[in-house]
Amino acid sequence: MRGSTPNDSPVRALVVAGSSRRDSNVAAIVSLATQTLAAAEAQVRCSDLAVLLPPVFVHADEAQAELPAVQSIRRDAAWADALFLITPEYHGNMSGALKNWFDFLYPELAGKLAAAVAVTGGGSGDMSLQAVERSVSWCHGFSLPYRAAAKDSDFNDGALRSPAIAERIERLAFDLVRYVRPIRQAWTDALEDAPSTRAGVAGLHAPKDPA
Question: What does the alpha-carbon distance between residue 209 and residue 10 come to, in Å, rounded to a whole number?
């Protein structure tokens, strides 16, 4: 029945640390995002790409699917309703580590809502944020219209010292939990119209009839 998924069920939020460096400033953003998502009563997991260190994605390499790092990436992305994606900005783009994370995924991100944060050397972060949001869109996910970017000068000894940036990140986290609920419900409702085109893009991700 349409609307049968209880929309008061906990939001499952995945925080992705998109750096391959363990000493990256990304860690401070991960900490704040995780704390704020928990304060918003979300269930939270973190996928730290500096710890997982998945291999470079190779299309149609079935052996990669058996690797623990790849299984972890796909399992956590499938579990999540909401994605909090944090990337350092390299050469005007998202990190190679985060792009590689995206390459291992597609159906796991469909219908999910994402928030994006960039950590930059000194730029605005706009290009890396746009790259993250574009990849979310190509996986049939949605992105919040609000973003945040932190510069090197916003940190001191790995700690985020900018109240303004901290406020933006907190607003992002609370909005992520707030707005994922109607999107999650709308996506679930749309699946009931599959395989008709009335299901929209959600219909492309409906379970296939084994018959």
Answer: 29
Cα 202 from Cα 188, distance rounded (Å): 8
Mean pLDDT (10-residue bins), the chain, 211 residues: 62 97 92 98 97 95 96 98 97 96 98 97 92 98 96 94 97 98 97 96 87 53
pLDDT tens track for 26-70: 999 999 999 999 999 999 999 999 999 999 999 989 999 999 999
Homologous superfamily of 12-182: Flavodoxin domain (3.40.50.360)
> Which residues face 14 on adjacent strands?
45, 83
Rg (CA), the chain: 17
- Which are the contacts of 110, defined by CB distance < 8 A and separation ≥ 6? 139, 140, 141, 201, 202, 204, 205
pTM exceeding the 0.90 threshold for the entire prediction = yes
